[in-house]
C-alpha cells in the first residue's frame, strides 16, 4: 500500500494540499481561500489568483508534510489537478507537482477537476450503489454524470451557458451583496419566500439533461429593474429566495429525471453549490419520494479541496493510470 500520496489543487482561487494514504485515509489537508482578496473586485481576477498560489503553495506543501509527519523523501506519489480551470492557476500546481515527481522519482497523476468533485462523496468509505447519477454543480460547471457498475463516468448533461454558481455570483454582484454570491444567497434566502417572485425555470422540460441559467439571470435583472421596490428592505429576501428556488427546482428536477431515465439507484451531488442548504434539503426529499438513495459530501468537501483530488488520483493509481512530464494544463471542460 502507498502510505503518502501528495495531492495539489489550484484550479481556481483556492490553494489546497493534502496527504492521503492509498486506502483514502487523510493524513493532512489544508485549504487557503483567496475569497478575501477577490471580494473587492466582485469576482475572481485570474492574474491575482495565480500570483497568490505562487506565494502560498510551497509553504502549504511543507506544512502538510509536517502534519503528516513525513519529509519529501517519504512521499509515494503526487496527484494534481490538470484542468479545467484558470490556466495560470493550474500551471502553478502542475509545475510544483511535476518538480516533486521528477526530483524524487515519484509517479505523477493528473486529474480532471470536475470529475474529482464527484470523489468528495467517497471521502469516508467506498460505500456505493450503482448505477448512480451525480450532479456536479459549482461556480464553473453544472454537469450530470452517470456512473455505472464498473465505475465508468459519463457526462450525460451540462449547462449550455452559465453554471448555477456563476449565475448566483453574478446576481449577488448585481445586487451589491458581495462575493462569492452562493453562500450569501443561501443565508439570506431563509428570510424570504421562494414563491414571492415569479421566475422562469429554463429548460426544465427540455428533452435532454442540459441546463441553462443565463436567461434566469436576465429575468431577475429585468424584474428588479421594472420593480425597484423589490430590492428594498425585506422584499430583497423574497427575490433571493425565489431566484434560489428557480435554480434548485431546475437542478432537482433534471437530476431526478436523469436518474429515472437511466435506472439509477443513487443520486449524489458535488461542487460548491452542493453546499446549498435548500438544494441539499430538496434533493434529499425528492430522492426519498422516489426511493433513490441520496449522498452529499460534508459541506467543507463541496467547495474546492485537495482531498477529493487525491481520492480521484488514488482511483487512477489503482488502475495504473499515471502521467509523464508531458502532462499539460487545460482550461475547458472535457466531455466524458
Ligand atoms: O466548487 P467550487 O469551490 O469552485 C468551482 O469549481 O467553481 O464552487 C464555487 C461556487 C461559487 O459559485 C459559490 O458561490 C458556490 O460555489 N457556493 C454556493 C454555496 N457555497 C459555495 N452556492 C450556493 N450555496 C452555497 N452555500
Ligand atoms: Zn471546483
Question: Which SSEs are present, and which pair or pack?
Answer:
Elements (H helix, E strand, L loop, with lengths): L4 E5 L4 E7 L5 E8 L1 H4 L7 H22 L9 E7 L3 H18 L3 E5 H6 L13 E6 L4 E6 L5 E6 L5 H11 L6 H9 L24 H13 L8 H28 L3 E5 L6 H14 L2 E3 L10 H13 L18
Parallel strand pairs: 1-4, 4-5, 6-9, 9-10
Antiparallel strand pairs: 1-2, 2-3, 6-7, 7-8
Helix pairs in contact: 2-3, 5-6, 5-7, 6-8, 7-8, 8-9
Bound molecules: 5'-O-[(R)-(carboxyoxy)(hydroxy)phosphoryl]adenosine (KG4) and zinc ion.
Kindly list the characteristics that best describe this protein.
336 residues, alpha/beta, Nucleotidyltransferase, domain 5, 2 domains, five-stranded mixed β-sheet, 10 helices, 41% helix, 17% strand, binds 5'-O-[(R)-(carboxyoxy)(hydroxy)phosphoryl]adenosine, binds zinc ion
* Spatial arrangement of strands, main beta sheet: 3-2-1-4-5
Largest sheet at a glance?
5 strands, mixed
Ranges where pLDDT stays below 50 over 5 or more residues in a row are: none
Percentage of residues in strands: 15-25%
End-to-end separation: 29 Å
- Whole-number radius of gyration? 20 Å
Number of helices: 10
User: How many beta-strand elements?
Assistant: 10
Helix content: 40-55%
| CATH C-level label of the largest domain | Alpha Beta
The sequence of SSEs as H and E is EEEHHEHEHEEEHHHHEHEH
**SS-based structural class?**
alpha/beta
How many domains is the backbone divided into? 2
Shape descriptor reads globular
Provide mean pLDDT, rounded: 95
Q: What is the assigned CATH homologous superfamily of the largest domain? A: ATPase, nucleotide binding domain
Give the second-level CATH assignment, the architecture of the largest domain. Answer: 2-Layer Sandwich
If you consult CATH, what is the topology of the largest domain? Nucleotidyltransferase, domain 5
Bound small molecules, deduplicated: 5'-O-[(R)-(carboxyoxy)(hydroxy)phosphoryl]adenosine, zinc ion
Amino acid at each position: 500500500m502507498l502510505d503518502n500520496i501528495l495531492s495539489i489543487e489550484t484550479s481556481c482561487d483556492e490553494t489546497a494540499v493534502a496527504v492521503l494514504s492509498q486506502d483514502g485515509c487523510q493524513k493532512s489537508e489544508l485549504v487557503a481561500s483567496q475569497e478575501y482578496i477577490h471580494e473587492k473586485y466582485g469576482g475572481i481576477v485570474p492574474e491575482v489568483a495565480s500570483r497568490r498560489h505562487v506565494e502560498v503553495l510551497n509553504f502549504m506543501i511543507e506544512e502538510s508534510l509536517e502534519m503528516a509527519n513525513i519529509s519529501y523523501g517519504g512521499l509515494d506519489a503526487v496527484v494534481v489537478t490538470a484542468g479545467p480551470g484558470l490556466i495560470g492557476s493550474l500551471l502553478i500546481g502542475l509545475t510544483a507537482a511535476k518538480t516533486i515527481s521528477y526530483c524524487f522519482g515519484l509517479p505523477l497523476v493528473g486529474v480532471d477537476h470536475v470529475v474529482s468533485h464527484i470523489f468528495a462523496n467517497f471521502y469516508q468509505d467506498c460505500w456505493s450503489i450503482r448505477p448512480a447519477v451525480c450532479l456536479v454543480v459549482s461556480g464553473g460547471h453544472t454537469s450530470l454524470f452517470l456512473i455505472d457498475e464498473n465505475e465508468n463516468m459519463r457526462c450525460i448533461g451540462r449547462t449550455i451557458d452559465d453554471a448555477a454558481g456563476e449565475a448566483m455570483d453574478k446576481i449577488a454582484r448585481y445586487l451589491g451583496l458581495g462575493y462569492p454570491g452562493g453562500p450569501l444567497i443561501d443565508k439570506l434566502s431563509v428570510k424570504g419566500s421562494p414563491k414571492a417572485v415569479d421566475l422562469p425555470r429554463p429548460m426544465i422540460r427540455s428533452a435532454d439533461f442540459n441546463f441553462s441559467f443565463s436567461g434566469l439571470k436576465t429575468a431577475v435583472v429585468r424584474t428588479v429593474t421594472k420593480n425597484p421596490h423589490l430590492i428594498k428592505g425585506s422584499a430583497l429576501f423574497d427575490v433571493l429566495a425565489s431566484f434560489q428556488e428557480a435554480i434548485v427546482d431546475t437542478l432537482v428536477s433534471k437530476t431526478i429525471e436523469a436518474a429515472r431515465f437511466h435506472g439509477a439507484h443513487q443520486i449524489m451531488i458535488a461542487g460548491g453549490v452542493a453546499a446549498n442548504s435548500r438544494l441539499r434539503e430538496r434533493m434529499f426529499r425528492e430522492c426519498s419520494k422516489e426511493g433513490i438513495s441520496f449522498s452529499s459530501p460534508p459541506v467543507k468537501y463541496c467547495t474546492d479541496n485537495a482531498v477529493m483530488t487525491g481520492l480521484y488520483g488514488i482511483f487512477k493509481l489503482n488502475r495504473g493510470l499515471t502521467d509523464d512530464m508531458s502532462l499539460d494544463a487545460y482550461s475547458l471542460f472535457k466531455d466524458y
